[in-house]
Amino acid sequence: MPKPAVGMFGLTGCAGDQLTVLNCEDELLGMVELLDIRDFLTASSDRDESCPLDIAFVEGVVASKRDEERLRRIRARCDTLVALGTCAVCGGIPAMDRDFDRDRLIVDLYGPGGRQFDALPVRALHEVVSVNVKITGCPIEKHEFLACIASLLNGDLPILPEYPVCMECRLRENRCLLIHDGLCCLGPITLGGCHARCPSLGVSCVGCRGPARDANLEAAVMVFEQHGLPRDVVWQRLQTFAPVPDGRLPQAWEER
Q1: Which residues contact 24 (CB under 8 A, 6 or more apart)?
Q2: What does the angle CA 217 – CA 219 – CA 222 come to, to the nearest 5 degrees?
Q3: Strand partners, 10
Q4: Contact, 39 vs 70, CB < 8 A?
Q5: Which 8-state DSSP code applies to residue 62?
Q6: Strand ranges (DSSP E) for the chain?
Q7: Residue 158: φ, ψ to 5°
Q8: Are 163 and 212 in contact, with CB atoms under 8 Å apart?
Q9: Alpha-carbon dihedral sign for residues 76, 131, 61, 24
Q10: How far apart are CA 41 and CA 141, in angstroms?
Q11: For residue 29, how many other CB atoms are within 10 A of its CB?
């Protein structure tokens, strides 16, 4: 049976998720034995840019016409498209300004010459093409990527966490940074899977994995307010990785 043909791609982003893949040092040789990696520029310049792909992993956001056109070409090449990282899944940090006047932002930053730039309001992958699997994280977790590979090789879609970071905090018997310390910890509404890494070190969750499914945003904000955290402080923190315009649940959250 032939090995699945795989491509790894980056749109506008930091390439952190691709680096996480390359940092799977002990598992890389095993992956190469099981996968036919045909197009992965970050790892090798020897690549096939036009072959059909069984699986395409894409990180970053659609922030330009060039990004959009490239993503559509990738989607046409592959059977299964995996959104890799918080940016690809729900917009991430680049989407913080998506509801602002784009033309004005460009002129403010670059002057009148900025109008020539190819720049669009940022979109997550699912807002442009159909996505089969979403692996969130900033960057992704190594164990979730490897589990995804194993599931796809078995012909299944991976089963990924849908519970919040708070659940992992409880399992680790951590002190609640919100209730006991009054910190603006987004663990109650942020997707788990990171093993509550930051709260376990006494650092409040900033929501880098994006929203948990069925997150009750309004109820969470009320709890924050009860612990002395103003609504505007909470909204501002939420904006960092999953934009929340005017306190409404945005499309990127609803479709997460």
Answers
A1: 31, 142, 145, 146
A2: 110
A3: 59
A4: no
A5: B
A6: 5-10, 36-40, 53-59, 78-84, 133-135
A7: -70, 150
A8: yes
A9: negative
A10: 21
A11: 9
* Burial (CB count within 10 angstroms: exposed 0-12, middle 13-18, buried 19+), residue 154: exposed
Q: Give SS3 for 179.
A: coil
Q: Give the sheet arrangement for strand 5-10, strand by strand.
A: 36-40, 5-10, 53-59, 78-84, 133-135
Residue 78, token pair as written in the block: 């592959």
Phi, psi of 109 (to 5 degrees): -80, -45
Q: State the residue for tokens 């299944």.
A: 156
Which spans in the chain are helix H? 16-22, 25-34, 65-77, 86-90, 102-110, 142-153, 165-171, 197-200, 217-226, 231-238, 251-254
Please give the domain boundaries of the chain with CATH numbers for all domains. Answer: 5-153 (3.40.50.700), 165-249 (no CATH)
Please state, as a whole number, how many other Cβ atoms lie within 10 Å of the Cβ of residue 4. Answer: 18
How would DSSP label each residue in 188-214? Answer: GGBB--STTHHHHTT-----TT-BPTT
What confidence tens digit (pLDDT) does each residue in 202-251 have? 999 999 999 888 888 888 888 999 999 988 888 788 888 876 544 454 44
Is the CB of residue 182 less than 8 Å from the CB of residue 228? yes
Confidence grade of residue 1 (pLDDT, cut at 50, 70, 90): low
